[in-house]
Amino acid sequence: MGGHRCRGDLALNLAPQPFLKHFVDLHMSASTNPPNLDPRKESLIEYPCSFPIKVMGARVDGFAEAMVQVAKQFDPEFDPATLEMRPSKAGNYLSVTLTIRATSREQLDNMYLALTSHPMVKIAL
How far apart, in whole angstroms, are the C-alpha atoms of residue 5 and residue 41? Predict the structure, then answer.
């Protein structure tokens, strides 16, 4: 999949997920931010950047196309030709990687919410 093209790779896997946002904000404010900086306004990602999101679901007709539609809701310039797909060993599940143009933390949070609430999605990373 290559690496993230954003700065702060180690924290990228946690920071965009909304359900971890408050934990990460609290941890970051306690451990790394000077008292005069509001951690909710700071980001470990330099926007805009290319940001890969891995989504897994059952290997059914329409799964990849549905994920492309979600990606286009948050990145209208998303190119479906960049979609990476990999079936599970047994062939029951499909993993797709959507590399979007991330423009803000809010955009990523909203996309993760849309993906994790989608009925075809088992997990989004």
Answer: 21
